[in-house]
Amino acid sequence: MAQSVVPHQLSNRLKEDTLLRELAGDLFAASISASSIAPIITAIDRAVVENAACSKFSLVSTLKSHIISSFRHPRLFFSAKPFFIVWTLYAATYTTANVTETVVRAFSQKKDEVLVGSITFLATCLVNVPLGVWKDIRFVQAYGNARLPSPVLRGKELPSPIVQPSSASLPRVPKVVGATFLIRDAITILGSFTLPSVLCEPIPDTVLSDPVIKAAAAQLIVPIFSQVFATPVHILGLDLYNHPQAQTRERMSRIRENLGPTTAMRCFRIIPAFGVGCIMNTNLRRYFHKAAGG
């Protein structure tokens, strides 16, 4: 009897050790993936907010100034609060998705993919949505209404990618602005986590025959197209903050003016955020789990 207990205890101990190594791998995969995409997303998000607040310069020129500054002053860029906010958002999102899936698979008796996927999706949403809204509120507080001083860059005045206001000077954000960001995130999450797995199945084998390639293609393309619907809501939220007393006709005119370039920029932004980032996180997680013996 005692002999049968010992192997059982050893088996449980091995499973526990494997689970801990897998969870450590989940954290490493999430951190590396977030670190790889946070710089470009930080630059894009700030450029979009500043462009909505003041369209004196084109969206591309504003983004260019931030990218140039990140190379000229890397220490300041990576130690600044905007980068930390964006990194926190994606590191927390990927970590939640990884850890939830690992734990559910480890403790569920039946390997039900629908159950695992549903729990992982809900947990990820519970973390991603409030952090996403928090990130956008912090950005619109810091960079809305052209609040920052503008240094000279190649003979033109552009918002500084380094200077940031103190927390004490940040104005309050109306609830309606937060609500628009929530709606935008709901559209983005639907297009990034739910629809790709559904829409990859109908892709004809004559176009893509490998299921893995189908899934990767859907994970890249579907989230991008979701921004066609999410971007107008995003611009509306920014305009409600920057021009709270504006008339509807005036507001719609500004939204139409910014819609084209902002949609293109947010579509491009999705590629690292929910395309490359998700694929990198998935592959790194698989590698670390394999190394852990899972």
User: How many separate structural domains?
Assistant: 1
Rounded radius of gyration (Å): 22 Å
CATH architectural type: Alpha/alpha barrel
Estimate the mean pLDDT confidence: 81
From the 3D structure, determine the CATH topology.
Mitochondrial carrier fold
Organism: Corynespora cassiicola Philippines
InterPro entries: C365.16-ike (IPR038781)
Protein name: Sequence orphan
What's the helix and strand layout?
Layout: H1 2-53, H2 59-72, H3 74-79, H4 81-107, H5 113-143, E1 152-153, E2 156-157, H6 175-199, H7 211-242, H8 248-292
Antiparallel strand pairs: 1-2
Helix pairs in contact: 1-2, 1-4, 1-5, 1-8, 4-5, 5-6, 6-7, 7-8
Protein name: Sequence orphan
Organism: Corynespora cassiicola Philippines
Describe this structure in words.
Residues 148-158 have low confidence and may be disordered. The protein has 294 residues and is an all-alpha fold. The two termini are 29 Å apart. The chain is 79% helix and 1% strand. InterPro entries: C365.16-ike (IPR038781). It comes from Corynespora cassiicola Philippines.
Describe the structure concisely.
With 294 residues, the protein is mainly alpha-helical. It is built from eight helices and two strands, in the order αααααββααα.
